From TrEMBL:
<dbReference type="InterPro" id="IPR004447">
    <property type="entry name" value="Peptidase_S41A"/>
</dbReference>
<dbReference type="GO" id="GO:0004175">
    <property type="term" value="F:endopeptidase activity"/>
</dbReference>
<dbReference type="Pfam" id="PF03572">
    <property type="entry name" value="Peptidase_S41"/>
</dbReference>
<dbReference type="InterPro" id="IPR036034">
    <property type="entry name" value="PDZ_sf"/>
</dbReference>
<dbReference type="InterPro" id="IPR029045">
    <property type="entry name" value="ClpP/crotonase-like_dom_sf"/>
</dbReference>
<protein>
    <submittedName>
        <fullName>Carboxyl-terminal processing protease</fullName>
    </submittedName>
</protein>
<dbReference type="GO" id="GO:0006508">
    <property type="term" value="P:proteolysis"/>
</dbReference>
<dbReference type="GO" id="GO:0008236">
    <property type="term" value="F:serine-type peptidase activity"/>
</dbReference>
<keyword id="KW-0645">Protease</keyword>
<feature type="domain" description="Tail specific protease">
    <location>
        <begin position="175"/>
        <end position="356"/>
    </location>
</feature>
<dbReference type="InterPro" id="IPR001478">
    <property type="entry name" value="PDZ"/>
</dbReference>
<dbReference type="InterPro" id="IPR005151">
    <property type="entry name" value="Tail-specific_protease"/>
</dbReference>
<keyword id="KW-0720">Serine protease</keyword>
<dbReference type="GO" id="GO:0030288">
    <property type="term" value="C:outer membrane-bounded periplasmic space"/>
</dbReference>
<comment type="similarity">
    <text>Belongs to the peptidase S41A family.</text>
</comment>
<keyword id="KW-0378">Hydrolase</keyword>
<dbReference type="Pfam" id="PF13180">
    <property type="entry name" value="PDZ_2"/>
</dbReference>
Amino acid sequence: MKYNPKYLPIVIFAALALGVVLGGMLNFPNTTDYLVKNNSKNKLNKLIDFIDNEYVDDINTDSIVNLTVDNILAKLDPHSVYIPPSEQQQVAESMKGNFVGIGVNFYMYKDSVAVIKPVDNGPSAKAGIESGDRILYADKTKLFGRKLPSDSLFSKLKGTIGSNIELTIYRKSERKKLKVKIIRDIIPIKSVDAALLLDGNIAYIKINRFAETTYSEFMTGLTKLKKQGAKSLIIDVRDNGGGYMEEAIAIADELLPNKQLIVFTKNKNGNIDKTFATEKGSFEKGNISVLINENSASASEILAGAIQDNDRGTIVGRRSFGKGLVQREMDFADGSAVRLTVARYYTPTGRSIQKPYSKGNEAYFKESESRIGNGELYEKDSIKITETIKFKTKKGKTVYGGGGIVPDVFVPLEVEHGSEGTTYLLQSGILGNFVFEQLDRDRKSFKGLTFEQFQSKMNQTDIYFSGFQNFIFGNGLNLNFGKSKPIVKRYLMAEFARQIFGESYYYEIILKEDAMIKAVLVQKP
């Protein structure tokens, strides 16, 4: 398949923006679920009965109902959505923060399930599974040569806590088959990717979504970094599409003094519910910076808005997505659910950051893509703000409503990474696939290296840079990395580090030349 490079930035940008769509679906209060029951025979129910009983051909009426529900919700707003049973479990697990399984990150390499890295201290790691192992059988179920979709693979490897599964694996490094018995256990799905110390005393915490465990993960990281001497804090919510607003509120509470307003919501009846910071607060003093971009949405914007409106810190980056709607989940008996918008939320100054959606859902979600074309990702003056929707913070700073959080310090895209096509490519799964294949060919050359030795090895060679360039050309992408060599090499090294050492090492490498981090360091008193 050949790709037109003219459209590559848009294609990959859309893939990244998918996280905003999913996160936006999930920005609802994590409170009581509501069971939807309607026993009255309305017109829609009768129509379905007529089709079931009288229509000349056999029809799957469930699919008709699902289509009808989707069409009804599409008339409301972009974030009122129907979640079918097949998707509800996966979404629920992601937001719960854990699932029961064997604990491996895997990659479908050609026609087999290849282990990228076992989860540290997880069931597979304890049983001796290694990076590069191919999983041939799960009990007696054949997994290779079938091109099974990911959801089918997950279902074979998941199970109940304490249950046994026997894996037949092929270990390429030893050229032999092994049978490994694994006891399934709870596997965490982390929402905090990294918590590390930068530049001596600056804590950096990266949050990828707001799940049930996010506040707990955040506090674990912050506590550790404070013990290491952290005096300032950077919270990175770039590409964080949202999640449970309570988790964002709980984090804001740790950063704001007692009785400062964090957020308030207003429903269709005009009822207002205000949430204030409490007396607790582990980081009420010390500089705070929040990093945002065009894919930071909903709960991310609640956190950024609370910090900005209370003059508590500096927002750095580019205008956020612009989602100010609150959903409530209501479950159906068949395992499906509807997430219905029940209120709007407002930042402490009283601004709604919800962008318009009157032109339909497609135009709404593509608005972020249009920021490439109108220049907003490159020049602060190109940001479209509504001058009539101005608000003032207590210290007199002007902030704007009507479409996302406008940063205090703007960092353009091209300064951050180079050409936008290269930017989004390096953040896509293509890079990870390439790195896995390179490790799979010569994993022994990295075995036993310390992190410092690994960095030295990667800095002294261009072999992987050249290989990745050929890999891209071979896949029909006409992107020449000649002018972006330092950036590409940095991302390659970071991805190798992630697959060999773990997630935090990826960020340790990437952040050294990150333009938003540099912007924060310049601001440091």
